[in-house]
């Protein structure tokens, strides 16, 4: 790893792998946000139906609770993914790796 030409290639490969591994999460996040928006719309429709016909509450309550729970679970997963992205931070820099390696010597 001490060879000057090896370290930049190694760091570039690591950064590429980080990006490659984050792509499925990015795709999942897009789908998740779309699904969350769909659920929000459905919940709003159910709530509007309940406002118009409160007597339907006993029949619609379970469905409304189910939709709300699904949306809550999607929100939790969204926060998990965003947390992973936040932890990834900036790409690895060659100078940082060099500094770490020289501190070990």
From TrEMBL:
<protein>
    <submittedName>
        <fullName>CcrB-like recombinase</fullName>
    </submittedName>
</protein>
């Amino acid at each position: 790893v001490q060879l000057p030409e090896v370290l930049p290639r190694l760091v570039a490969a690591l950064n590429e792998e980080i990006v490659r591994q984050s792509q499925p999460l990015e795709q999942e996040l897009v789908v998740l946000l779309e699904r969350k928006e769909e659920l929000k719309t459905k919940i709003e429709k159910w709530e509007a139906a309940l406002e118009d016909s409160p007597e339907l509450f006993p029949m619609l309550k379970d469905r409304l609770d189910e939709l709300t729970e699904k949306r809550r679970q999607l929100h939790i997963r969204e926060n998990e993914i965003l947390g992973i992205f936040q932890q990834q931070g900036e790409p690895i820099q060659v100078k940082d790796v060099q500094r770490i390696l020289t501190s070990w010597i």
